[in-house]
Design a protein that fits this description.
The chain contains 10 helices and 2 strands, in the order H-H-H-E-E-H-H-H-H-H-H-H. By secondary structure, it is mainly α. It folds into 2 domains: about 70 residues, Orthogonal Bundle (Arc Repressor Mutant, subunit A); about 120 residues, Four Helix Bundle (Hemerythrin (Met), subunit A). A two-stranded antiparallel ribbon has the order 1-2. Helix 1 crosses helix 3, helix 5 runs antiparallel to helix 8 and helix 5 packs antiparallel against helix 10. The longest helix has 25 residues. It is elongated and about 60 Å long.
């Protein structure tokens, strides 16, 4: 007999199907979702599971139920999803440390990846990296994208949102540190790149 941990929650699969359905039907914020009965028939699942999936999406602020009208897609681009999730899962210092540590690990490993397999000419010639101050999010988003791993990009973007919301970066950006990192990348020198990153993030003594 499988343990409960080995069997994925049915509603999580329904959330995935709902997302695909919204994309296929080209539904936009403000559009109405099919009724629970229609979703049950269309997705070929139990009504209670559909209800659970809709409840999860509503808790995340992605849909809203209007009494007597139905369920609608919210305009979630401006909603407070990050603060909402932070209220539930980032209440202790260990969680905050994990966000910071994981974000930095992804950045460091992506630097290593791009040295091995990316064409850095366009990145290195971008005049944005000569500005003062440099936009740290833009700089490292480009690094992550150059690593050509879409999953890492998605994870990093979420972590960066948490990181910024929780104000975990206590250091003021120093342009010389970015210059040093760009220089190390131009040399394709992994040891220098790692050292420059450690200094930029204030990790050189850890």
């Amino acid at each position: 007999m499988k343990s409960s941990e080995a069997v994925p929650k049915v509603y999580l699969e329904i959330v995935k199907q709902l997302r695909s359905m919204i994309t296929e039907d080209q539904l936009k914020p403000g559009d109405k979702l099919p009724s629970e009965r229609e979703l049950t028939e269309r997705l070929n699942v139990g009504r209670s599971s559909v209800r659970e999936a809709l409840r999860a999406l509503e808790l995340l602020g992605l849909i809203e139920t209007r009494r007597g009208e139905g369920t609608f897609i919210r305009d979630f681009k401006g909603h407070q999803l990050i603060p909402l999730l932070s209220t539930f899962i980032l209440q202790d210092e260990n969680s905050k440390r994990d966000v910071k540590e994981t974000k930095y690990l992804i950045e460091k490993n992506c630097l290593s990846l791009i040295l091995k397999r990316a064409d850095l000419d366009s990145f290195l010639s971008d005049n944005k990296w000569t500005e003062d101050p440099i936009n740290d999010d833009e700089f490292f988003l480009k690094i992550i994208q150059l690593a050509d791993n879409h999953l890492l990009v998605r994870i990093w973007v979420i972590l960066a949102d948490y990181y910024n919301y929780l104000q975990l970066n206590t250091q003021k950006p120093v342009k010389e540190h970015y210059d040093r990192l760009v220089s190390a990348l131009s040399e394709k020198n992994e040891a220098k790149t790692t050292e420059a990153y450690q200094i930029l993030r204030g990790l050189s003594n850890e």
